[in-house]
Amino acid sequence: MKRKGNLKEHFAGVLEIPGDLAYQEPIVTVIGRDQAVVENYRSILRYTREEIVLITLRGKLTICGKCLRIPCYTPWEMQVKGCISKVILH
């Protein structure tokens, strides 16, 4: 008997659904050093001016930097501004 994950991968491939939609993979778009857009996050675990930690379906996502802030967000997408030094997917 096939595992559930393999069946999901098979259908996503047959239907040509992008992985970010099929598996709700986190998408991080970094624009220069001062802006990032995070899609497909679940919740905010920690939010300080130096570190923002988000929960995703694949684990934790950490954005480090200085003067970080979240000017706007929806349940699906978040904008982060500040001096971004690194992005880590745990």
Automatic annotation (TrEMBL):
Q: Which domain of life is it from?
A: Bacteria
The organism's taxonomy opens as: Bacteria, Bacillati, Bacillota, Clostridia, Lachnospirales
Organism the protein comes from: Candidatus Blautia faecigallinarum
A Pfam family for this UniProt protein? YabP
Please state what the protein is called: YabP/YqfC family sporulation protein
